[in-house]
Write a structure and sequence with these properties.
By secondary structure, the protein is an alpha+beta fold. The chain is built from seven helices and six strands, in the order βββαββαβααααα.
Amino acid sequence: MKSMTGYGEASQQSGATKVSVQVRSLNHRHLDLQLRVPREYMALEEEIRKTIREKISRGRIDLFVNRLPGKAQAHKLEMDEALLGQYLASIKQAKKKHKLAGEVSVALLPSVPDLFHVREVEVDIGRERKALFNALIAALKKLEQSREREGRQLKADMQSQVNQMTRITSALEERAAELGVRQQKGPAGRAGDNGGRGENLEVASVVLKGDINEELVRLRSHVTNLGQVLRETEPVGKKIDFMLQEVNRELNTISSKVPQLPVVQLVLEGKERVEKIREQTQNIE
């Protein structure tokens, strides 16, 4: 069992470029991927999504990819040599025409308009792809470990609630058995005992509403299956949510058929346990 919340990060070096990946998961009914990648890696976005889907089936996933190139890698300075030639030819011609003295200093070159241009160096995606996906897989592995740690805590708490549901089911079965025995004695009860007659009349009216043995059999089956599902390694969040609906349905039917205070109290306690499990189910994959 895994929680839907966790965090993982990793980085890889590709030449002078450092690629780092941070991934965070939060609760969500379905798989919701939110990617933030540098524009240089946009062509790899669908492949990144596929890699995540292979590891995670449920939750909101926020992925952040950072690319930090080396200082000399990001940009390249270029000089327009043809333009420089035109400037020098023009200066030479002006000197000759106007009989000017002196030489052109190199220090003047940076001030010449449009002589120098800074351009971004093209990224070798093929070379950096390996670093990116190595970092991604490592970050996802750490995320999975984080989700598993929290999942073990959730499992322990949910198992405790299932144990209480098993106890409540046994108590309901005992109440049903008591009602059955008392009903077999008949509505007459103990002669001359008005309290006994009133109690037996109450039992008779309860039985008229229907027997709850079938509901109890289904309830125990659902609770037993719920405990088994908690031990599965596959994603079980949606399965548990469905089983809790079935447990609630049986509890409602039982309280409707046998509206006696002890039974109603047990049903209410059972519903409280169901809600606690449901709250935890929102956090598991």
